[in-house]
Amino acid sequence: MKIPKNTVCLMFDKEAEQAAHFYAEIFPNSSVGSVHRAPSEYPSGKAGDVLTVEFTVMGIPCIGVNGGSYFKHSEAFSFQIATDNQEETDRYWNAIVKNGGKESMCGWCTDRWGLSWQITPRTLTEAMSKGGDEAKRAFNAMMKMKKSTWRRLRLPDAESDNDRWRGGLAELRVRQSKRRLHHFQSLRTRAVPPEFSEPR
Questions:
Q1: Residue 147's closest CA among 105, 91, 101?
Q2: Rounded-to-integer distance, Cα 83 and Cα 186, Å
Q3: What angle do CA 179, 181, 186 make, to 5 degrees?
Q4: Reduced to 3 DSSP states, what percent helix, strand and coil does the chain have, rounded to the nearest 5?
Q5: pLDDT band for position 158 (50/70/90)?
Q6: Would you list the DSSP string of 53-120?
Q7: 39 class by beta-carbon count within 10 Å (0-12 exposed, 13-18 middle, 19+ buried)
Q8: Is the pTM of this model over 0.85?
Q9: Using CA of residue 171, residue 172, residue 174, residue 175, what is the dihedral sign?
Q10: Which end of the chain is less congested by CB atoms within 10 angstroms, N or C?
């Protein structure tokens, strides 16, 4: 197996293998590779214990090390996952938070091993890159959220062509219905003979 030039190394207490399988189940293009066991005793384990686990998260090569409880994860390091819609955002967020994780703010959460994740809608990144009022609106909305909500982040000019078309079609149908009703009422009024008109 070819060894990657750059690999993210993550420290766990004793559950590197469980974490690797958990990530592989949640995220596409993710998998668990080789599992290496300690050839002899070491400070936080004994010979035969799982020492390191090779895995990928969305194509990013990683290695998990069972190094004991001394080193802790923090938000100084996180994985940022770009999502394409609310369903994808919800799926990743719920998988992490509802399996022993915790919500944080601004689209951040931590899994049950303390590793931080940013579940970030592409529309937010795109708005921030444009700057100006779009960036300000998206940023202010993000600062008030825990899980990112696409509806609150979507800007007027970020509305899809399909949404515009459906909205315009609905408005046209309403106008047409009003015209038909007005025309029908006009014809009905003219069609009633004078002798059958209501007395004044």
A1: 105
A2: 54
A3: 95
A4: 40, 25, 35
A5: very low
A6: EEEEETTEEEEEEE--SSS---TTSEEEEEESSHHHHHHHHHHHHTTT-EE-STTEEE-TTS-EEEEE
A7: exposed
A8: no
A9: positive
A10: C
